[in-house]
Design brief:
Order of helices and strands: EHHEHEHEEEEEEEHHHEEHEEH
Strand order of the largest sheet: 2-10-9-8-5-3-4
Structural class: alpha/beta
Radius of gyration: 21 Å
Number of helices: 9
Largest sheet: 7 strands, mixed
CATH architecture of the largest domain: 3-Layer(aba) Sandwich
Bound molecules: pyridoxal-5'-phosphate
Number of strands: 14
CATH class of the largest domain: Alpha Beta
Distance between the termini: 33 Å
């Protein structure tokens, strides 16, 4: 069986060289005589892997001094609660409601403090990033840099002054260059652009640590986790190791800046075709289009279903849109090679000729 081009939104494709490396090392990592899955998280051999992974993330992401890197569990969804418990400090927080996950984040945060919806595009089916008004006295401002389900992206970050900017970067971390110093906290579930599911990355400015609500579970307390180097309890050792391989792969590609160029090219191939198509239509507002999740429809649900079925038969799998929006979504994260995008565009052309 040949590998397919997997356009799944997450868990999603991993770079083939990483999978091959993991396979090679699976039974015996280096000269340790065991697999990474079997190592104690307190062992020197695993701590070496862990520390190198942290250092490589700092390197590829350009994380400045004064920030802690954590590898936690519970996914981005656990961080919806953790962010509020750690940063709300009895005050209120601004949330920009730009998509389904952004909405879930603010609903969860409401359990732990006052949430102000600073702007929302919910009424417009989240087809664009909303206009927003920020509160000068907020504890933080929360945004979702890329909206995975609707295929939108913040092209310009909000100016929050001295109020910390918190970002859920689950679906576009390491796909484009960000100035980390503009953020108080960044979090991202790994299963889209980084690693298998089960790891969530947190990058947090040190001065924001130490104000968690007393009810905060230990494993969600950023200060306690930072003090213990993410090892207050057993971390997802194997997932973190794979993340480390992916960071090395990113370096070998020339870093995030190089990947960003390729990602722009990949997205443009799809959007250019869609914009000139007689059959397909993009669903997100042009200025806010995502480079990671390209959403489109034919306008006829039966035709959409036919397209997905025939695409699958060609080895272009998981192009079906999210169940709450329908249509199609091609997720083209870092690991999707440009050849996969070319193959999809060429199939779309063929399908259009046969059906429109
Ligand atoms: C996938 C996703 C989530 C949910 O992540 P889990 O790890 O399943 O909790 C949250 N936010 C964004 C932007 C996502 O893409």
């Amino acid at each position: 069986m040949e590998r397919v081009y997997n356009f799944a939104p997450g868990p999603s494709m991993l770079p083939l060289p990483v999978l091959e490396e993991v396979q090679r090392d699976l039974l015996c990592y280096g000269n340790t005589g065991m697999s990474v899955m079997e190592m104690s998280h307190r062992s020197k051999m695993y701590l070496d892997i862990f520390q190198e992974t942290v250092a490589d993330l700092k390197d590829v992401m350009g994380i400045p001094e004064g920030y802690k890197v954590l590898f936690l569990q519970g996914g981005a969804t656990a961080m919806f609660a953790a962010v509020a418990m750690n940063l709300m400090r009895g005050g209120k927080a601004d949330y920009v409601d730009s998509g389904n996950f952004a909405h879930n984040a603010l609903v969860e945060a409401k359990k732990y403090g006052e949430v102000v919806v600073a702007g929302s595009s919910r009424e417009d089916n989240y087809t664009h990033i909303p206009a927003y008004t920020l509160s000068p006295d907020a504890s933080y401002v929360h945004i979702t840099t890329n909206n995975t389900i609707y295929g939108t992206r913040w092209s310009k970050l909000p100016e929050t002054g001295s109020v910390p900017l918190v970002a859920d970067m689950s679906s576009n971390i390491l796909s484009e260059v960000y100035d980390v110093s503009k953020f108080g906290l960044i979090y991202a579930g790994a299963q889209k652009n980084v690693a298998p599911a089960g790891v969530v990355i947190v990058v947090v400015r040190e001065d924001l640590l130490g104000n968690a609500m007393p009810i905060t579970p230990k494993v969600m307390n950023f200060k306690e986790m930072a003090d213990k180097d993410s090892m207050l309890n057993t971390p997802n050792c194997f997932g973190i190791y794979i993340a480390g391989r992916v960071f090395k792969w990113i370096k070998a590609q020339g870093g995030v800046a190089e990947l960003e160029k390729i990602n722009i090219e990949k997205a443009s191939l799809l959007y250019d075709f869609i914009d000139n198509s007689r059959l397909f239509k993009g669903t997100a507002v042009r200025e806010d289009r995502s480079r990671m999740n390209v959403t489109f429809v034919t306008g006829d649900p039966d035709m959409d279903a036919k397209f997905c079925k025939e695409a699958t038969a060609k080895g272009l799998v998981n192009v079906k849109g999210h169940r709450i929006v329908g249509g199609m979504r091609a997720s083209i994260y870092n690991a999707m090679p440009i050849e996969g995008v070319r193959a999809l565009v060429s199939f779309m052309k063929e399908f259009e000729q046969a059906n429109a």
